[in-house]
Q: What sequence folds into this?
């Protein structure tokens, strides 16, 4: 078997946001938000797009949106590319979802909590080794929670999840392993096949169920993502190299009065010609 990549927007929505995905999404959210406990008993998958109700506000395009049986709204986004201001976008979408629950003249008491679950294929929080992070409003000095703590931001960073198939223990482990590795698997791992919702997710992700047109569209989307990732990596690397060169030039300038050109070149990694240009004032 060959499985589509759950990290692409098309596949993610097909697996977790289609009409046949309710049980899958319940299991997925219980695993990643509620530590595997059966907290969510039922939910409704609803239109994920948030058109602006106020002129001048941006549209919001989410991957999946659901309302739990207790009224809580959950918005879910799978993000492959580490684009500029992505953290602000997550907060904006959560705040917008919260604010736009009310119609004109409705009271604030009708507002329901919002949980924003974001899965990233890059590291967002390098200061933490944990693959899962959760943010709520807290008092700065005493660390107590805001009384109406209705905004809950949950992040799962796939690169930090390094468990192998034989190390999977929790339901969260198995769902994250699915997200990260389904594209390279050729069969459903035995340790995961016993969970009906994960088995169903693999079934939906099976390429054999897609038409040729769907597969071609999916391939184009995936190739676009890889191209964009490559462009970002190249830009970052060029920035690092430029920064290293600037540091090398600064060191070389300090050594001009004490060492010969060849020694400075060997010390800093600059070419002899670069050092000569520095000495003559051309660079």
A:
């Amino acid at each position: 078997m060959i499985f589509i990549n759950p990290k692409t927007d098309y596949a993610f929505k097909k697996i977790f946001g289609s009409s046949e995905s309710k049980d899958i999404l319940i299991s997925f959210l219980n695993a990643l938000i509620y530590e595997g406990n059966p907290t969510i008993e039922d939910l409704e998958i609803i239109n994920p797009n948030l058109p602006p109700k106020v002129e001048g506000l941006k549209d919001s395009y989410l991957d999946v949106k659901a309302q739990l049986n207790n009224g809580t709204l959950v918005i879910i986004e799978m993000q492959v590319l580490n684009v500029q201001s992505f953290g602000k976008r997550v907060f904006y979408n959560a705040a917008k979802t919260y604010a736009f629950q009310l119609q004109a003249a409705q009271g604030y008491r009708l507002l329901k909590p919002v949980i924003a679950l974001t899965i990233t294929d890059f590291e967002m929080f390098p200061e933490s080794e944990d693959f899962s992070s959760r943010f709520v409003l807290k008092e700065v000095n005493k660390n107590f929670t805001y009384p109406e703590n209705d905004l809950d931001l949950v992040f799962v960073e796939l690169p930090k999840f390094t468990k192998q198939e034989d190390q999977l223990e929790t339901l969260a482990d198995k769902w994250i392993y699915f997200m990260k590795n389904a594209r390279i698997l050729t069969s459903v791992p035995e340790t995961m096949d016993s969970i009906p919702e994960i088995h169903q997710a693999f079934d939906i992700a099976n390429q054999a169920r897609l038409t040729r047109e769907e597969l071609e569209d999916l391939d184009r989307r995936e190739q676009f993502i890889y191209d964009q990732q490559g462009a970002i990596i190249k830009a970052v690397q060029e920035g690092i190299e430029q920064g290293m060169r600037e540091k090398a030039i600064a060191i070389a300038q300090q050594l001009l009065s004490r060492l010969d050109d060849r020694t400075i070149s060997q010390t800093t990694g600059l070419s002899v010609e670069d050092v000569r240009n520095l000495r003559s004032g051309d660079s």
Notes: The longest strand covers residues 73-79.
